[in-house]
């Protein structure tokens, strides 16, 4: 085993260790993670929330035991593979040991440390963006058509993981047209590879068509409820914050495309970055959408800096370059990662507010960052629901009705009862209701914003309606969520559910 291989293995091992220690014990899974895990029980070629790839991984996690270890293993694995691909890019760019170590350090001690703690499509997405850049570099260097096919295959997998990769392609196409690489449009293999890519994603496109393109509705809802509160310049500011410790390396990457002769043939990456970021800026996108652009840039910047520091006294600056990203992360890790308890965050609220981390999707500041608040209160909710179940005699005719997918997913993950799953008219759960079974009882989970505290709407439908509990954790985003037990249905609950489902889908 060579020295380079030993060092690479060290970084991969370090990546896994860091990911498993990057979350304080006070926190549970994130609300999005519960939804993604539930997809495994309802395999399909598409979903309202994500394409099918996440469900395939969740299916594997389910059969591995569905434990917290495996939930966190896969995003950590994708993060480790991102380091590996950046390492391979640097080797392809003829970088030496310093560039390899610097690139690995920059990727390891960046915003990816936070991204890779969450079981979401993002970890695989950013890995695939990096792989796609690697295949393009390989094609530029070799002009071997097999790399065109690898690029198309990577796009297809990326599309089946998250549609966001389409914006990368939208940024790449005009970038290619601006450079000498435009000759690829005369290559027959290019069009054949696109055809195969389209064939691979067709099952998902067919699913979207048969379900009236829910991705469009999802995007419209996202724009109305979240993106409308985003400041375009906050998007640009976040790009700096994501890689603060490596900002010099990224700037050097941009310079290298014009100042370093061996890299001028890669200027297409500069233009693709510019076009893609411009698209996101115009669409008022969330800042993290563009993170996948940076790992490959870190590879270019690392190699270029190695060339700049190879002579004279400048070589003594190499240790500083390697240590800098680590020191910056050490100064910021408490606000980037959920390593502080909610009480400790409250004590340092001004620091979090300074970086805009207390601002939620509603455009207002709160006590905790939204992502952290989304990781609290779920076990408490599941325990209340379980206690309600224990008081019911005919458990088989009971259904759990929730207001949002976080509630439903968390109950399904933590609940010890095996009689039914939790459902909601929100996200993919709307398609999973067991309408073929008779429903006599309902455990109703409602958000704190619901003003019908006494459930006057449901009282005529059931023999008894009672409040059985509410979430008391003030730091949880679900604080105040109430749980009701509705027993002895007087009318057909199945029919009412079907009407509500139809109304929601039409809306």
Report on the structure:
- The protein has 507 residues and is an alpha/beta fold.
- It folds into three domains: 7-336, no CATH class; 342-373, no CATH class; 378-506, no CATH class.
- The chain contains 22 helices and five strands.
- The protein has helices at 3-20, 31-38, 53-63, 68-92, 97-108, 112-115, 121-142, 146-161, 165-177, 188-210, 214-225, 232-242, 247-259, 268-283, 294-308, 318-336, 342-347, 349-354, 370-373, 378-390, 405-414, 493-506, and strands at residues 398-402, 422-424, 441-446, 462-470, 482-489.
- Strands 2-1-3-5-4 form a five-stranded mixed beta sheet.
- Helix 21 (405-414) links the parallel strand 1 (398-402) and strand 2 (422-424).
- The radius of gyration is 25 Å and the shape is globular.
- The termini are far apart.
- 43% of the residues are buried.
Features of the shown structure:
single chain, 507 residues, alpha/beta, 3 domains, 57% helix, 6% strand
Which SSEs are present, and which pair or pack?
Layout lengths: L2 H18 L10 H8 L14 H11 L4 H25 L4 H12 L3 H4 L5 H22 L3 H16 L3 H13 L10 H23 L3 H12 L6 H11 L4 H13 L8 H16 L10 H15 L9 H19 L5 H6 L1 H6 L15 H4 L4 H13 L7 E5 L2 H10 L7 E3 L16 E6 L15 E9 L11 E8 L3 H14 L1
Parallel strand pairs: 1-2, 1-3
Antiparallel strand pairs: 3-5, 4-5
Helix pairs in contact: 1-4, 1-5, 2-21, 4-5, 4-7, 4-15, 5-15, 5-16, 7-8, 8-10, 9-14, 12-14, 13-15, 20-21
